Amino acid sequence: MKIKEYKTSTDDVVTSYQNVFSCAEREFMLNFAVNSGYAFGSASSPVAKIMNLEPFFNCNFSLEDAERFGFNQSKFVQNLMADYELTGAWINATFPGNFHYHHTDNPVRPDIGAEKYTLMYNVNTIWDPSWGGEILFSNMLGETEIAIDFTPGQIIKFDSRLRHRSAFSHNHKMPRFQFVSQYIKKPT
Q: Do 81 and 15 form a contact (C-beta atoms < 8 A)?
């Protein structure tokens, strides 16, 4: 496994993990993503919704769907998030020319953000870096400081208060699938 830690100027940490899943696990999750039911949605930011900004396809998972997907059942994810419980999961499917606007995954309760984390999993098994689609992270002041390539099979962990977005992608034939799961600190 390859682990890389990124840090913003405001001391926000984003960690990426590569080579966590076997080829069979990755293929299963890709097939699950391809065969999931998507709806035409829009960015999670309230401002983006009001302004009717760039929509994309997403599939919200029940906790049972998230379990069947297999990501959260892996020993690695269970150990990584041992002190946290899963609160929600979905897959975003973007096509060439789509991108997301900066948003947080914790807009309602920023006071508990330090106890809420997001894990993003790049579901695609094939991706050429020239197709774009990097994940861009901003510091807590809103300045974009980190760009992480969209690497197949990569998991990215970050504080749910951290502003982020997917960059523009192009020339890919299959949608760019990203599984997102959110966790909140278990009560002690």
A: no
Please choose, from the candidates 11, 15, 10, 9, the residue with its C-alpha nearest in 3D space to the C-alpha of residue 148. 15
Taking only the tens place, the pLDDT of each residue in 170-188 is 999 999 999 999 999 888 7
Q: What stretches in the chain show pLDDT beneath 50? A: 42-53, 113
Paired tokens of 54 = 């760039």
The domains found in the chain, sorted by start residue, are: 2-185 (2.60.120.620)
State the sign of the Cα–Cα–Cα–Cα dihedral 92, 94, 103, 19.
positive
Buried/exposed code over 85-122 (b: 16+ C-beta within 10 A; e: otherwise)? ebebbbbbbbeeebbbbbbbbbeeeeeebebbbbbbbb
